[in-house]
């Protein structure tokens, strides 16, 4: 029988010297694989603790961690901090994956990435060492892909108010506003000023290097989104998964009714109420690489 377990504190050291904090969750039964859990933008890793514990009960080691500037990896004062989204992938996820590969012991390391967390692996130099990616609402926040009826309000919130407040304060006070965790200035501005291409502003050679790194991802990708998600719409998912052009990608569109619920949205799938539906189904893909929703491919 699975036993109650407390995760082990870990420190991840990035190649640029930044140190991150996270937790290692050892499997409570014979481990089949290790799963790195990548958080959404402005969401602390503790939000995924219930899912991580669920994975340990079902034969997986898990690693949760906070990106630089977030949660347990947040400095006391964010003003003047220059952390970026890109560093979350190139540095932070790369360090997390390196830790998981060394601690694994099973020969299979996968990622479950939520929102931006489903996109960040493509930035990492070690992306070709992954065995699979389950991307849950994985995209990068381009306003033009938001659900049409929510687009005006989301644009005002994330692409007008957020950059104005961020520029004024030197960071984004998400906690004070009750929106998100606080965000480093450049992370907030990268999101707010997104124009549909993550390589915007790069010289052609740097842009091609970035795209080539995404193409180095050869592991299968299962990208799942909800029909009532106003941010991770099918258009947003197509835009993001197109970067993984070297991988076999399966895109899934679920409705809340498919899971026995009235609404799910962008954040709901990691709530414990989805233990017996989405969580259980996710195990099929993590264990065997089998799509549990073949009738929902789009």
UniProtKB/TrEMBL annotation:
InterPro entries, A to Z: AB_hydrolase_1, AB_hydrolase_fold, UCP037442_abhydr
Top-rank taxon, per record: Bacteria
Molecular function in Gene Ontology: hydrolase activity
Annotated AB hydrolase-1 domain residues: 45-270
Keywords: Hydrolase
Signal peptide: none
Keyword Hydrolase: yes
The protein's name: Alpha/beta fold hydrolase
Provenance organism: Peteryoungia desertarenae
Organism phylogeny: Bacteria, Pseudomonadati, Pseudomonadota, Alphaproteobacteria, Hyphomicrobiales
């Amino acid at each position: 029988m699975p036993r109650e377990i407390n995760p082990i504190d870990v420190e991840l050291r990035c190649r640029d010297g930044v140190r991150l904090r996270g937790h290692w969750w050892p499997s409570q039964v014979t481990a089949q694989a290790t799963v790195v859990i990548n958080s959404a933008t402005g969401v602390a890793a503790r939000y995924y603790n219930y899912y991580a514990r669920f994975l340990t009960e079902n034969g997986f080691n898990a690693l949760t961690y906070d990106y630089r500037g977030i949660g347990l990896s947040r400095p006391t004062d964010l003003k003047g901090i220059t952390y970026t989204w890109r560093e979350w992938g190139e540095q932070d996820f790369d360090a997390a994956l390196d830790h998981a590969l060394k601690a694994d012991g099973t020969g299979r390391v996968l990622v479950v990435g939520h929102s931006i967390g489903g996109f960040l692996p493509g930035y990492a130099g070690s992306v070709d060492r992954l065995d699979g990616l389950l991307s849950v609402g994985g995209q990068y926040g381009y306003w033009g892909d938001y659900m049409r009826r929510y687009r005006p309000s989301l644009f005002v919130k994330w692409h007008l108010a957020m950059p104005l407040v961020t520029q004024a304060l030197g960071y984004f006070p998400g906690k004070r506003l009750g929106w998100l965790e606080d965000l480093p200035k450049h992370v907030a501005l990268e999101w707010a000023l997104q124009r549909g291409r993550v390589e915007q502003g790069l010289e052609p050679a740097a842009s091609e290097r970035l795209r080539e790194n995404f193409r180095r991802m050869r592991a299968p990708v299962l990208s799942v989104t909800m029909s009532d998600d106003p941010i991770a719409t099918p258009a947003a998912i197509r835009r993001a998964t197109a970067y993984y052009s070297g991988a076999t990608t399966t895109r899934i569109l679920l409705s809340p009714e498919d899971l026995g619920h009235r609404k799910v949205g962008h954040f709901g799938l990691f709530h414990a109420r989805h233990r017996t539906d989405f969580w259980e189904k996710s195990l099929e893909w993590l264990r065997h690489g089998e799509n549990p929703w073949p009738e929902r491919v789009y």
